[in-house]
Structures are given as C-alpha cells and as structure tokens.
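Ops channel
N.P.: pipeline sanity check, posting one input/output pair.
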C-alpha cells in the first residue's frame, strides 16, 4: 500500500508538533519548527546542539523517502487521483489503474520555483515598499510635530494679541477715569474757592458793621432804625454735590474667551496609505506578523503546479 504522504504534506512537518518546519538539529536529527527550535536551543539536554535551516537540497533528500509497501523503492511519483506519493512499482498496481502520475522531482522544482518567486517578491518589492512606508511614517511624525508646534505658536500669539488689547482697554479706561476725576476735583476746588471768597466777604462785612456799631452815635443808630436801613449781602454761592461713579465688572466665561481665540478644527481626515501590490504571496495561514514569513504550497501551489505541467486541476477527478 502506498504511503499517505499527500500533496498537502509536500513541506516538512516538525517531529514534535507537526507544524511546518524549516530547521533541523545536526546532532539528534530532529526536524523542528520555529517555536520548537527555540525550545530545543534552551533545553538543558539539547542546548549544546547545533540547529540549522534546511536548504532546498536537504528538503528534497527528506522527501526522497522509501515506499511503505515496497521498501526497496523510493517515492518518485505523485498520484493525482489519490493525492499520495508512490514508487514505480505502485504505479502498476490495480488500485492505481488509469490514474495520472506526476514526477515528484518536477513537482519539487515547481514548488522551488514558486518559493523563489515569492522570496523575490518579498526581497524586491515588499521590503523596499515597507521601508518606503517607514520613511513616510517618519516624515509624517516630523510633519505632525511641526503642525502642532505651529498651532501652539498661533495660540500663544493670539493670547499675546488679546493681552495687548486688554492692556489697551485698561489703559484707555484709566485715562478716561483720570479726566473725569480731574474735572470733578476742579469743579469742587472752584466751588471751595468761591465759598472761601464769600466767607471772606461776609467776614469783612461783619467787621465793618461791628465797627460802625461801636463808633456811631446812638442818635444816628436810632435814626437809621427809623429809616429801616438793613445790611445788604450777596446770596450764598450755589454749589453741587459731585457725580459718583463705580466699577461694574463683567464676568467673562471660558466659552466667550475661547470664541476670541478661535478653535482647532480637523482640516482633513487621514487616508489609508496606497500600496501598489498586484501580486499576493502564498503564505502559511497560521503565519502572524511579525513572525518570520513562511511560504507553504497549499491548494494555490497545487493548481499552479498542475497548470505549469499543462494539466487542468478540475480534470483530475475524471481520470480513471
């Protein structure tokens, strides 16, 4: 019976976890995946072992296994109907009658060509494109810093401008208050001077009449009384109480001050970076970035290999 080494097993499996493997231990001969290789390197028993990566020749050597049915024969063909690798003797067995067989070496060359093509895409396109994106991101970081620096500078400039306006307003109001104060005080001083002069006038008038009263003959005083003579004076000067003023502060809110400053608004939404990648790699479905990229010949590779050999994958089921 032919071995069940199918096309989906065209890559090598790890001897410890059955995952795809790219490494082998030169001491104990184990085939290892990326994770098991790390464990193998830190284990106390195997830490001194030398683990190396498979070359294409080494992979092909492992694929050149013995047939389980005919142990003296190497696996050399792929039965496309059974999807198993078989030896030459298996191809003539009844259970493989009318089946289509593909040369294992040609399949491997097809796989290697695909793998080299994908590696070339990574090296010549994906890595340079990613490096360009990294540079663009770095430039964006610089531009963003400059942008916000300019915004902060604009806010501070606006604040300085508003402070200047406030100083100008306060200075103008103080000057206005000074003029009003000066006018009021001048008016009060004038009224005070007028009253002082009036008091001096009254004092002199009083002294004059007192002197007359002392020095005038009594008969003359009686005569003057008969004549109903009175002292004539000017009226008391008119005065006014001054106007009074008070400062009525207006409470400014943060919202009102913010309106004076303006606002920081979104100018344009960031867009997805456009990366010109037409071809897609056939990657291991279990691969997760930033782990190392692993290329695996799944159904896409199978179809590619068959079409590369001039066959149609859909026709295999009808070949019996």
């Amino acid at each position: 019976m032919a071995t069940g080494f199918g096309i989906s097993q065209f890559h090598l499996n790890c001897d410890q976890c059955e995952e795809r493997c790219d490494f082998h231990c030169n001491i104990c001969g184990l085939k290892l995946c990326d994770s098991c290789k790390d464990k193998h390197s830190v284990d106390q028993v195997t830490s001194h072992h030398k683990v190396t990566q498979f070359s294409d020749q080494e992979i092909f050597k492992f694929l050149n296994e013995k047939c389980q049915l005919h142990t003296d024969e190497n696996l050399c063909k792929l039965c496309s109907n059974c999807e198993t690798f078989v030896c030459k003797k298996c191809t003539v067995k009844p259970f493989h009658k009318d089946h289509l067989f593909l040369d294992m070496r040609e399949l491997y060359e097809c796989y290697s060509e695909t793998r080299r093509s994908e590696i070339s895409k990574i090296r010549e396109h994906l890595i340079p494109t990613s490096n360009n994106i990294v540079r663009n991101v770095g430039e964006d970081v610089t531009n963003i810093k400059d942008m916000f620096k300019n915004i902060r500078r604009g806010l501070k400039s606006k604040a300085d401008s508003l402070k200047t306006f406030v100083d100008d307003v306060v200075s103008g109001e103080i000057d206005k208050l000074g003029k009003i104060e000066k006018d009021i005080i001048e008016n009060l001083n004038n009224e005070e001077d007028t009253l002082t002069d009036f008091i001096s006038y009254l004092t002199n008038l009083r002294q004059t009449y007192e002197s007359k009263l002392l020095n005038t003959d009594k008969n003359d005083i009686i005569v003057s009384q008969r004549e109903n003579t009175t002292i004539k004076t000017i009226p008391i000067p008119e005065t006014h109480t001054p106007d009074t003023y008070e400062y009525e502060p207006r409470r400014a809110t943060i919202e009102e001050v913010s309106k004076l400053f303006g606002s920081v608004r979104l100018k344009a939404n960031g867009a997805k970076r456009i990366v010109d990648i037409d071809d897609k790699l056939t990657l291991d479905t279990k691969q997760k970035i930033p782990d190392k990229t692993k290329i695996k010949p799944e159904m896409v590779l199978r179809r590619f290999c068959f079409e590369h050999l001039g066959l149609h994958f859909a026709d295999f089921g009808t070949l019996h």
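N.P.: looks fine end to end. The two ends are 18 Å apart (CA to CA).
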